[in-house]
Design brief:
By secondary structure, the chain is mostly helical. The protein has 14 helices and no strands.
């Protein structure tokens, strides 16, 4: 498949109203959107799994092309995925591509992927670091990984807007699933203030924690002196 053939297929499914809607959601006017709805995009990704090597050479002119690149790499067996994940993560330039990047192979290779998590967390680029936090949320939300999650939040849970929101989303999910441990981490005051406040807000928006827990979190927000270090 050539790049022109890919664009022809994508444009055949173009929905102009959806393109305009999705463009607004991305909050990044530099990202060009063709306007292919997600079920169709996922179907094309399945169809093109054998084309991944060619697709990696295509230019990143459109949101859909980069999204396809990421998810074709994500569909590879772990060894190939690990060999190419560094090729695609730096291409991410918006939250939708970041959060929609699926890599099922990580689930059975969590320990082997940890060096990549550390590498991406230490990267100053906004969506590279967000990718690491979102991957922790998707693949490492188990009690045995809580020390890793808290250490990652403590060291890297600050920075640009989408980093802060990714870190907050991760901690909010910890509060839903491991409330006592998440509360104790917040109470330590080690987390960056804005991230802590966003995490508490997200957790309090959830139907999966009790009203008593929400009250306790709101009280903690007023009581704890969170880190102001950026």
């Amino acid at each position: 498949m050539t790049y022109e053939e890919m664009l022809a297929r994508l444009n055949a499914h173009r929905d102009e109203k959806y393109a305009a809607f999705h463009q607004r959601l991305l909050h990044n006017p530099s990202v060009r959107v063709i306007g292919v709805r997600m079920p169709i995009l996922r179907s094309l990704i399945r169809e093109w799994r054998g084309e991944w090597e060619s697709v990696l050479t295509f230019p990143d002119e459109y949101y859909e092309v980069t999204f396809i690149k990421c998810n074709l790499v994500g569909a590879l067996p772990f060894g190939q995925f690990a060999a190419h994940v560094r090729d695609v993560v730096p291409l991410i330039d918006n939250w939708a591509t970041c959060d929609g990047f699926e890599a099922p192979c990580i689930g059975k290779n969590r320990e082997a992927f940890l060096p990549f998590i550390e590498e991406f967390l230490a990267d100053e680029r906004e969506f590279v670091r967000r990718y690491a936090f979102v991957t922790l949320l998707k693949e490492y939300m188990e009690e045995r990984y809580l020390p890793l999650i808290f250490d990652s939040l403590r060291r890297y849970g600050r920075g640009d807007y989408y980093v802060v929101m990714g870190a907050a989303w991760l901690l909010a999910e910890v509060l839903v699933r491991f409330y006592a441990e998440g509360y104790a981490f917040l109470e330590s005051g080690e987390l960056y203030r804005e991230t802590a406040f966003k995490a508490i807000s997200k957790a309090c928006d959830s139907f999966r924690i009790t009203s008593e827990q929400k009250t306790a979190l709101k009280t903690l927000k007023k009581r704890v002196s969170f880190s102001e270090k950026y």
